[in-house]
Automatic annotation (TrEMBL):
It holds the Pfam family zf-C3HC4. SMART domains: RING. The keyword Repeat does not apply. InterPro entries: SPX_dom, Znf_C3HC4_RING-type, Znf_RING, Znf_RING/FYVE/PHD, Znf_RING_CS. The lineage of its organism: Eukaryota, Fungi, Dikarya, Ascomycota, Saccharomycotina. This is RING-type domain-containing protein. Gene3D superfamilies: Zinc/RING finger domain, C3HC4 (zinc finger). One of its GO terms (molecular function) is zinc ion binding. Residues 346-385 form the RING-type domain. Keywords: Metal-binding, Zinc, Zinc-finger.
Length: 441
C-alpha cells in the first residue's frame, strides 16, 4: 500500500483526536507542492538533464532559503535569460571553464565550484564569454546558473513550520504525560506506605516487576539496547497484562487508590503507544516526502534538510523517540517508589544483603557471607579484590541501609534472620567453641 494511504489510515483511526489530525504532516498537500516546484523548474527552462552543481538550504531566523546552482548549455542560457527577464528572480549566470565542466554531477552536494570571472552574463561582453570556451571542446561554452526558486522555498517553509509545530506538540504531550505519571505516583505512594496496615507495597512490587521485565518501551538487553518499535511495544504490553492476569496479583490490592492507579497506569501506557505511533508516522512522512521531492525535482534534499532542522532544534520529532523520554520519567518518578529486591541483593548468597556491611571499597554484602569469608582467611573484597576484609569491624554495618531494608522488605528480612540463626545454631554444633566470638558479629 502507498504511504499516503497508510498515513491517512493511521490518522483516521477512531481514537485519534481531531487536533492530532490537524497538526500532523500534511503529506498530500506537500505532494502537490512538489508538482509546483517541478513546474517552476520547467517554466524557467531547467531540464531534468541539467547537471546540478549544488543544491543547498540555508536557514535565517526560522526562514528557509534554498539555493540552486546548475550547469546550462548556451541554448538554455538564451532561453532562460529570455524567460527570467520578465520575472522578478534573483539570479546570476556565469561562464564555466573546462575544469568545472568535468567536475560536478547531478545530485552533487559538493561546495560551489570556483567560476572564472564571476559576473552576470547580462553585463559581460561577448569576448569574456568566448574566453571561457575551450577550443578543443566542440560542445561549446557552458554556463552556471545560480538562482533562488520560489516554489521550493514555499515547500520547505511549509514543511519546516509543520515540523516545528509537531515539536511543540510533542513537548505539550510530554508535559501532559509527566503530569499523569505524577498523579499515579502520588496514589501508589499513598497505597504502599511501609508498615501501614494493609499496605499494597508487595502487590505493587510484583506489578512493577512484571512491567520492568517486559521492557515495553525500552530494551536494556545489551544486544538490542535502545528504544523498541511500536509493534514490539504493543506485543510486550499485552504480555505484561497477561502476566498480571495470570498471577492474579490485582486481586491482592487492599487500597482503593491502588485499583484506581492501576487503571490509570494502563491508560498511560496506551497513551504512550498512541503518541509514539503518531510521532513515528509523522517522522516517516517527512522522510518520504523528501524522497519524493528529490525524485521528482532531481534536487537532493533528503540529507541536508533533516540536518538543518535538527541543528536548529535538538528536541525534534526527527531526532529520538518520545517513548524513550517518557520511559525515563516512568522509571525515575514511578517505579522507584517501590524498591525492587534486585537492587538489594548480596552478590555472594544472592538473597537480601541483611545485615548489610559496606566495605571500604564501597561494595555491599550481607554480614553472614563476610563472616564466612573471614573464616577462610580471605582478606580481599570478592568483587574488586581490594584488601579490605581484615580491617572490618561492627562499625562497618550500614545502619541506614539496614533500617531501609527492614522497612521496605520486611518479609525478606525476617526470612534472612531466621535463616541466619538456623545456620548459627548448626555451626555451634560442629565448630570449635573458640570461634564463636566471630560468629556473633
Ligand atoms: Zn550474602
Ligand atoms: Zn569491593
Amino acid at each position: 500500500m502507498k504511504f499516503a494511504k497508510v498515513f491517512q489510515q493511521v490518522l483516521a483511526e477512531e481514537q485519534m483526536p481531531e487536533e492530532w489530525k490537524e497538526r500532523a504532516i500534511q503529506y498530500k498537500k506537500l505532494k502537490k507542492r512538489i508538482n509546483k516546484v517541478v513546474a517552476e523548474l520547467e517554466s524557467i527552462g531547467i531540464s531534468k538533464e541539467d547537471v546540478v552543481f549544488h543544491y543547498d538550504l540555508e536557514m535565517v531566523k526560522s526562514e528557509i532559503h534554498p539555493h540552486l546552482q546548475v550547469k546550462i548549455s548556451p541554448l538554455e542560457k538564451t532561453l532562460i535569460m529570455d524567460r527570467l527577464s520578465s520575472l522578478d528572480y534573483n539570479y546570476e549566470i556565469v561562464p564555466l571553464k573546462l575544469r568545472e565542466l568535468n567536475a560536478g554531477g547531478r545530485d552533487s552536494t559538493a561546495p560551489a565550484l570556483d567560476v572564472e570571472d564571476v559576473q552576470s552574463v547580462a553585463a559581460s561582453s561577448a569576448a569574456s564569454v568566448l574566453s571561457a570556451v575551450n577550443p578543443f571542446d566542440d560542445s561549446g561554452p557552458f554556463y552556471e546558473l545560480k538562482i533562488s526558486l520560489l516554489e521550493d522555498t514555499k515547500f520547505f517553509q511549509v514543511l519546516y513550520d509543520e515540523i516545528e509545530d509537531l515539536n511543540r506538540f510533542r513537548t505539550e504531550q510530554e508535559a501532559e504525560i509527566a503530569n499523569n505519571v505524577e498523579a499515579i505516583a502520588h496514589e501508589v505512594s499513598y497505597a504502599t506506605v511501609p508498615k501501614m496496615k494493609k499496605t499494597d507495597l508487595y502487590v505493587w512490587r510484583e506489578v512493577f516487576q512484571y512491567y520492568i521485565e517486559c521492557e515495553i518501551f525500552f530494551s536494556t538487553a545489551e544486544k538490542k539496547a535502545g528504544s523498541v518499535d511500536i509493534g514490539q511495544s504493543k506485543e510486550r504490553y499485552l504480555k505484561f497484562l497477561q502476566m498480571v492476569e495470570d498471577s492474579r496479583v490485582l486481586h491482592k490490592f487492599h487500597q482503593k487508590e491502588s485499583v484506581l492507579a492501576f487503571g490509570e497506569f494502563k491508560s498511560l501506557n496506551f497513551q504512550i503507544m498512541k503518541i509514539s505511533n503518531y510521532q513515528t508516522f509523522n517522522s516517516l512522512a517527512v522522510t518520504k516526502i523528501l524522497k519524493k521531492f528529490d525524485k521528482q525535482t532531481q534536487l537532493s534534499s533528503k540529507d541536508i534538510f533533516p540536518e538543518l532542522i535538527i541543528s536548529s532544534n535538538e528536541m525534534n520529532i526527527l531526532n529520538g523517540s518520545i517513548a524513550t523520554d517518557i520511559c525515563l520519567v516512568i522509571s525515575s518518578k514511578l517505579l522507584t517508589i517501590v524498591p525492587q529486591i534486585d537492587d538489594y541483593l548480596c552478590p555472594i548468597c544472592c538473597s537480601i544483603a541483611f545485615k548489610p556491611i559496606r566495605l571500604r571499597c564501597g561494595h555491599l554484602f550481607c554480614i553472614r557471607c563476610l563472616v564466612k569469608l573471614r573464616r577462610k582467611h580471605e582478606d580481599k573484597c570478592p568483587l574488586c579484590r581490594n584488601q579490605c576484609l581484615l580491617a572490618l569491624t561492627t562499625d562497618d554495618l550500614d545502619v541506614a541501609q539496614m533500617n531501609y531494608m527492614k522497612m521496605y522488605f520486611p518479609k525478606e528480612v525476617r526470612e534472612k534472620e531466621l535463616e541466619n540463626s538456623r545456620e548459627i545454631l548448626e555451626e555451634q554444633h560442629v565448630i570449635d567453641p573458640n570461634s564463636k566470638a566471630c560468629l556473633i558479629m
